[in-house]
């Protein structure tokens, strides 16, 4: 079953309600100083967004509290039913420098982003934890079909029949793109293991320096525990008929390795076998626990 406000583009289901809007996205005019944050769904976008916002505001928490995370930086392709206009239109009206978000596969990104040589930060998360997070997210968000059972959702994830399409194509496509474009490719698990080191990578990529004190402040403000309690970051401001946090909170576990509590031995074997085939021939590797 699909959702009425989605569109299929190149075999991937997108939360873009019309062809007209999709064409506008394709014709989107990027600016050279745009920063693009790209991830597959449930790979740590909200977390990375908060880190980048803190970096850009020199660790000023009050400035990052100016709006909720869904309102602070628009998506290229998402239309939130509770907002007055598509995110794209909000992006068009934003003053520079902008930070824009996307869950699109690299080959679907508006060409102008490449032409303008925009800096892009991509965050990837290991497939199993990403799948688990996506499963729980699908349960709590009313805009997606109910996943029914974990095993059924596993099958859909493996075949790419989920919102934004195949995880495998997504992480591989962006991995290949980084050899040709200004892309900083980061991993959720690295951010969890050593947030400071990953923040230093972001700073270098953004050609920015911050004091050790400010960096420590960023690590604290963007920790799972602090973000979970932050109403401007924990997504509780999204209307409850869209996000039902009582079914599963958006800030759920925030830990690598939670997949172990979800996969049966049989499903794990099946998944691993399929994974090997899909990821054969790539230099891209993931940690599935820390
Ligand atoms: P879990 O469901 O595994 O807990 P996205 O923002 O891309 O939708 O990703 C959501 C996932 O990132 C959720 O994973 C969420 O808990 C996790 N997350 C959000 N903030 C985090 C933080 N500060 N540290 C670690 N994980 C975080």
UniProtKB/TrEMBL annotation:
Start and end residues of each Sulfotransferase domain: 32-282
Pfam families recorded: Sulfotransfer_1
Annotated EC: 2.8.2.-
Keywords recorded for this protein, A-Z: Transferase
InterPro entries: P-loop_NTPase, Sulfotransferase_dom
Superkingdom to which the source organism belongs: Eukaryota
PANTHER family for this protein: SULFOTRANSFERASE SULT
Family affiliation: Belongs to the sulfotransferase 1 family.
Name under which the protein is recorded: Sulfotransferase
Lineage: Eukaryota, Metazoa, Chordata, Craniata, Vertebrata
Gene responsible for this protein: SULT1C3
């Amino acid at each position: 079953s699909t959702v009425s406000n989605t569109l299929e583009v190149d075999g991937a289901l997108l939360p873009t309600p019309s062809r007209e809007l999709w064409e506008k996205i394709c014709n989107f005019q990027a600016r050279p100083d745009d920063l693009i944050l790209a991830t597959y769904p449930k790979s740590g976008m909200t977390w990375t967004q908060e880190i980048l916002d803190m970096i850009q505001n020199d660790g000023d928490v009050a400035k990052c509290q100016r709006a909720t995370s869904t309102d602070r930086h628009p998506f290229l392709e998402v239309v939130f039913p509770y907002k007055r206009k598509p995110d794209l239109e909000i992006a068009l009206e934003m003053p520079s420098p902008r930070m824009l978000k996307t869950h699109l596969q690299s080959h679907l990104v508006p060409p102008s982003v490449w032409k303008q040589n925009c800096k892009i930060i991509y965050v990837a998360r290991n497939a199993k934890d990403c799948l688990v997070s996506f499963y729980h997210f699908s349960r709590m968000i009313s805009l997606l079909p109910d996943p029914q059972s974990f095993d059924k959702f596993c099958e859909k994830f493996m075949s790419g029949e989920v919102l934004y399409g195949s995880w495998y194509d997504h992480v591989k496509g962006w991995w290949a793109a980084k050899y040709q474009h200004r892309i900083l490719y980061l991993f959720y698990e690295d951010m969890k293991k050593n947030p400071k080191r990953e923040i230093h990578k972001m700073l270098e990529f953004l050609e920015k320096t911050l004091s050790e004190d400010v960096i420590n402040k960023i690590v604290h403000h963007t920790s799972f525990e602090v973000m979970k309690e932050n109403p401007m970051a924990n997504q509780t401001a999204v209307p409850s008929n869209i996000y039902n946090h009582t079914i599963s909170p958006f800030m759920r576990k925030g830990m690598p390795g939670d997949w172990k509590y979800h996969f049966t031995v049989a499903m794990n074997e099946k998944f691993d076998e399929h994974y090997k085939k899909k990821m054969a021939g790539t230099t891209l590797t993931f940690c599935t626990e820390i």
